[in-house]
Design brief:
By secondary structure, the protein is α/β, with parallel strands linked by helices. It has 7 helices and 6 strands; from the N terminus they run E-H-E-H-E-H-H-H-E-H-H-E-E. The protein has a 6-stranded mixed β-sheet. Helix 3 packs across helix 4.
């Protein structure tokens, strides 16, 4: 059977000057996931990542937990996150009355981001954007097609981001664009999205599972940013 585990990166450094790096908690989440794979006897024929720092650091942490060298990752920019900073900024410029408060809470940020992504998906967001919604959709279709064509009979691990994974799941479910936004906002750090595939189809088996954090003493390690 061909199967792939998509993993959202560990907790990044939300609120810092550089979001694209794991927090200490994010590193811990990644190691625990690797240790879970080791206990289950799960080995991977290939490990794919986007080219973001938080993707690489998550893959390295998983390998540490597995007791494997953190080398040989196959990098696909198609697995990168969409530029949510640019999307939000364009929205705030277009709607200045939605400006963030001086000391915004996390909820303030995500409330506006949700509206910005929806407008982006409807081609209603103005300004110079790094990519269109259609381009974002297409790159996830492209990487899925590559996986199905090239990795027959293998078990693959792919470290990506919440938005990219949500887009892929939306496509697998043939759900409306709005579904991507909801899936994105509920995907937990280092959550597993398991799919089976052949050369013609990929099917969703499970979404947003965190078996490596599923115990009372680890509940505080569950995060969404």
């Amino acid at each position: 059977m061909s199967e792939i585990y998509f993993v959202r990166h560990g907790q990044a450094s939300f609120g810092s000057s550089n979001y694209d790096q794991l927090s200490e908690l994010g590193h811990q989440q990644a190691r625990l996931l690797g240790e879970y794979f080791l206990r289950r006897g799960l080995q991977f024929d290939r490990i794919l990542t986007g080219d973001m720092v938080r993707h690489r650091e998550t893959a390295e942490g998983i390998c540490q937990g597995l007791g494997l060298p953190a080398t040989g990752f196959e990098v696909f920019t198609e697995l990168n996150e969409f530029d949510f900073h640019s999307i939000l900024q364009a929205y705030l410029v277009q709607f200045p009355d939605q400006a963030l408060p001086d000391k915004p809470a996390v909820a303030d940020f995500f409330k506006r981001l949700k509206k910005a992504i929806l407008l982006w998906s409807q081609d209603g967001l103005q300004g110079q954007l790094p990519e269109s919604w259609q381009t974002f959709e297409q790159r996830l279709l492209d990487v899925r097609a590559h996986i199905m064509a090239q990795y027959k009979g293998q078990r693959v691990l792919a470290v990506s981001s919440g938005g990219a994974i949500a887009m892929l799941v939306r496509q697998l479910l043939q759900a409306p664009s709005e579904a991507m936004i909801e899936l994105n906002l509920q995907t937990r750090n280092t959550a597993l999205i398991h799919c089976v595939f052949n050369q013609h189809n990929m099917r969703l088996s499970s979404f947003n599972s965190i078996p490596h954090l599923d115990s009372p003493e680890l509940q505080t390690l569950i995060t969404y940013t």
